[in-house]
Write a structure and sequence with these properties.
With 286 residues, the chain is an alpha+beta fold. The protein contains seven helices and twelve strands. It has a five-stranded mixed beta sheet with strand order 2-1-5-3-4, with helices on both faces. A three-stranded antiparallel beta sheet has the order 10-11-12. The longest helix is centred in the middle third of the chain and has 17 residues, at 88-104. The two termini are 36 Å apart.
């Protein structure tokens, strides 16, 4: 059930996207307006529960009067604005960004990227086998989730979710510069020695699979992970009286991971360690 927030109705702005007049509530981004108009623009770092970070640069569009391309995820719509989403310049920008990302990190578990690479005719292999990669082994230092930084695009979503936008734990941040930049806990210690409270809200917002449930990681390694065979059931967490909504992902009659609806007014996609990881008792066969 989608809950409509109460409040003063926002003024509608009128502008143009790809030659078509559109109307969007004041405060909407270009990306919001495009999606409302049925126009899909690729994006990786944008999150519906986080403030835009402008990190991935895949959603760039042309705005009349702007010298440079602008990020659709953060640029606010303005009255009379003329936006072009599919110009040669915008498509070339997305092509190059996808090539750079796909040549430097593993995007094999990133939803829709393969489709985008095909659509924009990106050729990540043109940079050669010597293109910079982390080539790090996944960090498996706890029983709940895995950090595979070979898939990290430094979108900062996990940092924001762990920081002042949601959890306020501040367990992770970006360390290093240039090719050495990466997400890390303090002093790059094992996760078990950090301030992490294992809420898993960083996993919820990760767009590439750099952060994943240990159960999902193990099943992918074994070749048994099959999202098409999974069912999703939303229920209410029974651990306390807050009323957090849980979406149970079930495969072969086993819960394989737990998420939370982003449009739920209680959780907004966030959970605590019990809600996200405390499901083993449900399927204890002993």
């Amino acid at each position: 059930m989608t809950v409509t927030p109460l409040g003063i109705p926002r003024r509608l702005l009128e502008f143009t996207i790809d030659g078509e007049p559109v109307r969007a509530p004041e405060g909407s981004t270009i990306l919001d307006a495009c999606r409302a108009a049925g126009k899909e623009i690729p994006t990786l770092c944008q999150g519906d529960t986080l403030r835009p970070k402008n990190a991935c640069r895949v959603c760039m569009v042309e705005v009349e009067g702007s010298r440079t391309l602008v990020p659709a995820c953060s640029r606010r719509a303005e009255p009379g604005m003329v936006v072009q989403t599919d110009t040669e310049r915008a498509r070339h920008s997305r092509k190059v960004v996808l090539e750079l990302l796909a040549s430097s990190v593993d995007l094999s578990t990133t939803p829709q990227v393969a489709e985008w690479i095909k659509e924009y005719e990106a050729k990540p292999d043109r940079f050669g086998r010597t293109a910079a990669r982390l080539n790090e082994e996944p960090k498996v230092d706890n029983d709940l989730y895995v950090r595979d930084y070979d898939k990290c695009i430094l979108c900062y979503k996990c940092v924001d979710a762990c920081g002042d936008q949601w959890q306020n734990t501040f367990a992770i941040s970006v360390s290093g510069r240039g090719f050495d930049a990466r997400i890390a806990v303090e002093h790059d210690a094992p996760l078990t020695d950090s301030a992490c409270v294992y809420c898993g809200n960083c996993i919820e917002v990760c767009p590439t699979g750099a952060l994943s449930f240990k159960s999902e990681f193990d099943m992918r390694a074994a070749g048994t992970w099959n999202e098409s065979a999974q069912t999703e059931t939303t229920t209410v967490c029974a651990y306390c009286g807050v009323g957090c909504n849980l979406t149970l992902h079930v495969q072969d009659n086993e819960i394989v991971k737990v998420t939370s609806p982003h449009d739920n007014p209680v959780t907004h996609g966030n959970l605590c360690i019990k809600g996200r990881f405390g499901y083993q008792h449900v399927q204890n066969r002993d």
